[in-house]
Amino acid sequence: MLDTNALSELIRNPQGALARRLGAIAPERICTSIVAACELRFGALRKGSAPLTRRVEQLLGALTVLPFEPPADAHYADIRATLERRGKPIGSHDLLIAAHARSRGMVLITRNPGEFRRVPKLPAEGWPD
């Protein structure tokens, strides 16, 4: 599962190292969360850039965008409570994406691994490394 930062990198640099690494993976094994899709679409609208909006829509159209559904909500509650008890919370959107990936047993691909590595039982990899 690609997070928002990974998707943003693909939009900024569609021929870059991340894109090349993803090229070695079967397309049906690559997906993103509806939460990341929301963030990308919001960012494009906020910038008011038609070319950026087209790139976002093109990328999201090429990926499977998974809906947020149970048991992701239970994972969200567990992760949030655990991180808050430790005094190490993460951003609200990252929390939702982490819960989504963990609930589906997926590896989360990110450009921000430090944030996600604090999440228990979430395999998160920083690409490109």
For the structure shown, list the relevant keywords.
two-stranded parallel ribbon; Rossmann fold; 4 strands; mainly alpha; two-stranded parallel sheet; 129 residues; single chain; 7 helices
Topology:
Elements: H1 4-12, H2 17-23, E1 31-33, H3 34-47, H4 50-62, E2 64-66, H5 72-85, H6 92-103, E3 108-110, H7 113-116, E4 124-126
Description:
The chain is mostly helical and 129 residues long. Helix content is 57%, strand content 9%. The strands form two sheets. The protein has a two-stranded parallel ribbon. Strands 3-4 form a two-stranded parallel sheet. The radius of gyration is 14 Å and the shape is globular.
The largest beta-sheet arranges its strands as 1-2
C-alpha termini separation:
16 Å
Number of helices in the DSSP assignment: 7
Helix and strand run: HHEHHEHHEHE
- Rg over CA atoms: 14 Å
Summarize the structure.
The protein has 129 residues and is mostly helical. The chain has a single domain (4-126), classed as 5'-nuclease (Rossmann fold, 3-Layer(aba) Sandwich), CATH 3.40.50.1010.
